[in-house]
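#struct-help
A.M.: can someone run this one for me? Single chain, 145 residues.
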Amino acid sequence: MNKLFIVVYIILLYGCWSCSGSQHSLSYYKSHLDEIKIPSSDSIITISNGKIMLSKDEGESGDYVNLYLQYYKNNKLQYYKRISRFFNSLCYDGVLEESEEYNVKGTQIKLKKRILKDENGNKVDSTGCQFPYRFPFKLTHILNE
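D.P.: on it. Structure tokens below:
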């Protein structure tokens, strides 16, 4: 796994754009989201306080890329985040980025926040938007090793 891959996902998990060890700006990471190389199977990264499972789904035509992050502590799912970059929203002509963060307690999943932004990081009103790439994603609640 390359260093950018790991740094970007840790930044996505913690929402920290100026973490120690990070030498790039938010715009740098956003511009490289589509280039992240994730193997076809889920990747698991061990960090000091848990594990991160990473997954990626992308359209063959390039219309969308979905990035999924699941954070585990003591092999139990604690946090889930989905980031989608896509075209064809019907409410905006360019690329949109939708970010959803969820807190997890047992098997209960609660939406913490949802943000929709344009390619420049400006918030976009979702009125009239369609989200054709919000696919169901099966969460792994217990990480078996």
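A.M.: thanks! The chain has one domain: 3-118.
D.P.: also worth noting: Residues 3-118 form one domain.
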